[in-house]
């Protein structure tokens, strides 16, 4: 059967992924309506669901609050609208009229359905897009709106898609919240009746929420249960609204923008929403995470097959106190530890030696680097490492040559205070001249200095998000800003195919599938405390793969929390992602340097499992007991188990960790101890890994299949 099929007699469309089905139809009013999202169906079975719309429950009710593919603001609809428009004569309601469809293959292994509609009276076209892949259960959805008339149209809200779930007795919502240095804290809460809104109003994805949701009936766990989920590929302000209705239904709608934003649509103009991808799984939260990880690796990341190098970053060692001699000394020690990429962080450019001055003047400081960056780059390359550099292209200090030349380049409104945070203002990347300026100095910087890696930071949420010298500037700004940001990165990578980029926004303030499609990894959090990172990384890994998760080993007491944990524990936590080193190596003892070099070498022996293996979570960070993650080769030939324990309590049971994804007929040898285990015992009866006594104990168990 085709992955996308249609039954003309019933009007049912059926999309089939390797394990799931998605069905919809156009109802008697012309509106695209949801039928099913879940286990596999045939077209005939899906047609059984295509009954006429039920009558309202009472004369006070209109259409059900959920159940349409893109609920509009029009008619007797009282749920959350996904599409709200205002026409030139003030009319706001939209009425569907089908105008055709297209099915094509945009790439090998992918099939796309485009359902075309128009308003019954006004010149506005709406096309709903659905894309499925042969190797994934993730369904990508987005909408395209086109003004075909001679008068402007205003989009008051234009979500990417709405998703409808079947009726259940209860529903639970999983999502992450946080703040700077405490990102991606996982929450699983009973879904209340009414509307629950997750959003960012900050112009960036934000530390406070992330644009993904998971819903289950309250009975799913790590290994069992149905889970419906979605993730938005957008790196600016966004909103996802989850609904639970009195009739037992649930659904959600989401897209770019925040409350109060509008999108002008001039005659002939077209607006394409970002993709809101959805996924249904039957294997609990673990299967959901693994399916998202596989999708990100196969269809999002630009270089998914690469193995990310061990990096060293200078920030926590030096702060702004950066000079050539100090960086050369750190580079020599980093190379001796086994680092493969040396990244010089903030403090290298212009007069930027503190917050509030010099940001935006992107030339090497003549006093700190009298001969430019070339001597440092040459020495880093001679030591066998790649060279990386921190940049923050989107912000500027008022005390800078750039701002003095172009005060009009920042986000601002006339007659309003230009609010400073961190002594910074935000450059208006929606302006083509600003985007071209950023692209110009970045591509010259990379080319002139042989730079291999950029840490692209953005430390400043939007305020006074205006664009006075552009008609409807404030309404155009946020969407154009993100598109131009993407464009600068895309142009830069096209110029320099070997360049690799880390997404950063004061830590994890800009992590989403949109930015990951243009970068190679993300800085998870400015909080490098290993104890906190266990929780931050647990939430991050619900959607995003370890291959993208940068994690550092830094000094103790930790700069942020003041906590001290053993070097071994810090390494084992950071080894769960892309390992980095961030301490002041000039202060490490010989014993610490030797232990660190040994642990770096250990990571290199297993990082193919961490970065390319399949993740299982034998035990989450739910209490003071051990937490563990497992990475297994796709063919089951080997596995890595990382275990961390905070503070043991006398008399508490030692949990058994049951491993997953192993070859059930195989036996596995512990690479360190030589002990041989049966896969059946490891999977069904479990393993109690040996942990050192005391607080902050950890271990890494590398299992290799016995020939």
From TrEMBL:
SUPFAM superfamilies to which the protein is assigned, alphabetical: (Trans)glycosidases (SSF51445)
Alphabetized GO MF terms: alpha-galactosidase activity
Domain Glycosyl hydrolase family 36 N-terminal: 30-257
UniProtKB keywords: Glycosidase, Hydrolase
EC numbers, comma separated: 3.2.1.22
InterPro entries named in the record: Aldolase_TIM, Alpga-gal_N_sf, Alpha-glycosidase_related, GH, Glyco_hydro_36, Glyco_hydro_36_C, Glyco_hydro_36_N, Glyco_hydro_b
Swiss-Prot/TrEMBL catalytic activity: Hydrolysis of terminal, non-reducing alpha-D-galactose residues in alpha-D-galactosides, including galactose oligosaccharides, galactomannans and galactolipids
CDD domains: GH36
Enzyme class: hydrolase
TM region(s), chain numbering: none
Residue ranges occupied by any Glycosyl hydrolase family 36 C-terminal domain in the UniProt entry: 627-703
Family affiliation: Belongs to the glycosyl hydrolase.
Protein name, per record: Alpha-galactosidase
Organism: Streptomyces longisporoflavus
């Amino acid at each position: 059967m085709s992955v996308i099929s249609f039954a003309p007699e019933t009007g049912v469309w059926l999309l089939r992924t390797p394990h799931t089905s998605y069905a919809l139809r156009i109802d008697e009013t012309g509106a695209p309506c949801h039928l099913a999202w879940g286990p596999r169906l045939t077209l005939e079975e899906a047609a059984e669901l295509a009954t006429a719309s039920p009558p309202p429950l009472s004369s006070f009710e209109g259409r059900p609050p959920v159940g349409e593919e893109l609920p509009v603001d029009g008619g007797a609809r009282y749920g959350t609208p996904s599409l709200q428009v205002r026409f030139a004569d003030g009319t706001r309601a939209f009425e569907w009229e089908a105008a055709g469809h297209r099915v094509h293959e945009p790439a090998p292994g992918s099939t796309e359905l485009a359902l075309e509609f128009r308003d019954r009276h006004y010149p506005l076209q709406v096309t709903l897009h659905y894309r499925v892949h042969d190797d994934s259960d993730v369904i990508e959805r987005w909408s395209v709106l086109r003004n075909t008339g001679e008068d402007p149209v205003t989009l008051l809200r234009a979500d990417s898609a709405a998703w409808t779930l079947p009726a259940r007795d209860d529903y639970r919502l999983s999502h992450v919240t946080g703040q700077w240095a405490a990102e991606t804290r996982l929450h699983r809460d009973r879904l209340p009746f009414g509307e629950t809104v997750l959003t960012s109003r900050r112009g960036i994805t934000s530390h406070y929420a992330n644009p993904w949701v998971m819903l289950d009936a309250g009975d799913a766990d790590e290994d069992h249960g149905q889970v419906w989920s979605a993730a938005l590929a957008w790196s600016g302000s966004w909103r996802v609204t989850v609904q639970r209705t009195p009739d037992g239904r649930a659904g959600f709608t989401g897209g770019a923008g925040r409350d109060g934003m509008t999108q002008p649509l001039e005659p002939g103009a077209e607006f394409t929403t970002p993709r809101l991808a959805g996924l249904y799984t039957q294997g609990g939260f673990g299967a959901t995470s693994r399916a998202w990880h596989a999708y990100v690796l196969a269809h999002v990341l630009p270089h998914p097959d690469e193995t990310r190098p061990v990096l060293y970053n200078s920030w926590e060692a030096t702060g702004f106190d950066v000079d050539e001699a100090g960086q050369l000394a750190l580079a020599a020690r980093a190379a001796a530890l086994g680092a493969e990429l040396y990244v010089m962080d903030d403090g290298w450019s212009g007069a930027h030696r503190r917050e509030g001055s010099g940001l935006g003047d992107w030339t090497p400081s003549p006093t700190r680097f009298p001969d430019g960056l070339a001597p440092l780059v040459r020495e880093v390359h001679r030591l066998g490492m790649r060279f990386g550099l921190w940049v923050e292209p989107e912000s500027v200090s008022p005390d800078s040559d750039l701002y003095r030349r172009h005060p009009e380049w920042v986000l601002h409104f006339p007659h309003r205070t230009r609010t400073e945070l961190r002594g910074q203002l935000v450059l208006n990347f929606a302006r083509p001249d600003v985007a071209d300026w950023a692209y110009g100095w970045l591509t010259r910087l990379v080319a002139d200095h042989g730079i291999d890696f950029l840490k692209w930071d953005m430390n400043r949420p939007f305020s006074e998000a205006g664009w006075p010298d552009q008609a409807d500037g404030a309404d155009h700004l946020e969407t154009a800003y993100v598109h131009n940001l993407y464009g600068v990165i895309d142009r830069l990578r096209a110029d320099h195919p070997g360049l690799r980029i880390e997404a950063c926004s004061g830590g994890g303030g800009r992590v989403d599938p949109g930015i990951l499609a243009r970068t190679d990894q993300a800085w998870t959090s400015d909080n490098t405390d290993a104890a906190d990172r266990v929780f931050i990384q647990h939430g991050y890994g619900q959607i995003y793969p370890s291959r993208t998760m940068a994690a550092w080993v830094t000094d103790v007491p930790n700069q942020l929390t003041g906590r001290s944990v053993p070097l071994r524990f810090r390494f084992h936590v950071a080894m769960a992602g892309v390992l980095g080193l961030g301490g002041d190596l000039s202060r490490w003892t010989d014993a610490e340097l030797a232990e660190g070099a040994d642990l770096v070498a250990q990571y290199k022996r297993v990082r193919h499992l961490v970065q390319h293996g399949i993740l299982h979570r034998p035990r989450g960070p739910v209490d003071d007991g051990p937490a563990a993650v497992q990475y297994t080769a796709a063919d089951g030939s080997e596995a890595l188990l990382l275990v961390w324990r905070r503070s043991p309590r006398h008399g508490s049971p030692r949990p058994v960790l049951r491993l997953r994804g192993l070859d059930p007929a195989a036996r596995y040898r512990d690479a360190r101890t030589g002990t041989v285990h049966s896969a059946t015992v490891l999977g069904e009866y479990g393993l109690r890994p040996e942990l050192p006594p005391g607080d902050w104990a950890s271990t890494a168990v590398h299992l290799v299949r016995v020939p």
